[in-house]
Design goal:
Layout (H helix, E strand, L loop, with lengths): L1 H35 L8 H22 L15 H33 L12 H5 L1 H22 L5
Length: 159
Amino acid sequence: MLTTFRNLLDRLILFITSFALMLLVVTVTWQVFSRYVLNDPSSWTDELARYTMVWLGLLGASYLFGIKGHLAITLLDGYLKGKAHTALHLLINVISGAFVSLAMLKGGLALMGRTTQQLSPALQLPMSSVYAILPISAVIILIYLALNTIELFCKPNKN
């Protein structure tokens, strides 16, 4: 059941990031075309591309937690076996979860609260909708950390 949930979450994130990447390509292509061919640069494409890049980057980082591809220092990981290896990964998950909870979730929600009335210059979007990716990606990362922690204790240790 957890594998099915993980696969569904993976596919959802990959679908959204694929859409964001296509949107990024289209907006940047239109920006280049309108600037150099039409000699009339579009005012909204730069802003949309910037916000799309932020969403793409944070959703991609969330996905990396799911596939355990996030940045890690593996010096101790190769030397530890059995319970010590499990304890190390549990400690890493707890520290990562604390950082994500405080910086991304709590900080992201506070940032959204402060920017609700602020509008983006070209698109006139509430800036809180742009910053919403912080708590969204934090929740996704926390879900993946929980799944990874459950797998630590449910799967036989390969090391």
